[in-house]
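Appendix B. One record, verbatim.
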Amino acid sequence: MAYGTLESLVVMVNYLVVYLLSTLSLFLVILAFRELSSFRKIKFIGEYSLYLTYSSLAAILFSLIFFSMAGVPPLAGFFIKFFLFKIVFLADFLLSPVVFIILLTSVVSTLYYIRVVRFVFFDSKLTPIMLLTLNIGSAFLLVFSLVIIVLFVIFQPLALTCVTNILELAFL
């Protein structure tokens, strides 16, 4: 947004939408897990391995969301971060402190997200015992968010076009 171009505004809005859907999906999986485990709270990061204990589907969904937030291709988070870096490089702001802040926070967050996935899959010695259950509204929202996250490559041109048109009407 600081670059002040239409393209940077479009990428910012798309980034916020993808991050919102990812965060919403993540909280839906966490709340579904808490409901299954009699509302047990997770206090330590190592306790995320319990997700695999309750449901392999929940563990896979949880990991997909975290991989998207980390920016692993071909998920939505990768493309959003790619467009963000593309704008920075095309705007000739390579020596700006913003570039270094974005790179640093991106690397740190990627390490954190992948660390959580490691706890889910590699620190659990238990086998999955039950399926994840959600009410119909939460299930629809979770499936919708995951479809957007996983198939963002297909929806990306449509999303960029829609957001560009909306922002052009609003600001120009």
